[in-house]
Amino acid sequence: MPDWTLVVPEEFTDAEQKWVSKLSDGTSIRTHILGSVELDRLLAKHPDVQDWSVRSAVDLALSRIGHKDAAPRTLQEAHDGLARYIADQNTFSLYWGRRLAVVDGLPGWELYAKREDAADMEPLSITVNMLFGREDAELAKLTKDVFGYGRGTRLDLPEQNVHSLVYDGPADWFSGTESGYAVSVIPVRDAHQGEPARIDSYAADGTHLGGLTGTSTDVGNGTEGGFIEVSFEEVLSMFWRFPRDSLSGSTDMTFDAVGRSGVAVNRVVRFMDTLPRAQRLRLTLSGKSVSAALPQGADLRAADPKLSEYAEDLSVIEKLGDVTFAFPQELPEAAERIWTRIARMLLEGKCALIPNYSSMKATLSGSMDEGLMVLLDAGGAILNRSVSGEKVQASTCWTIQS
Question: Checking DSSP bridges between strand 30-34 and strand 106-113, what pairing results, if any?
Answer without folding.
Answer: unpaired
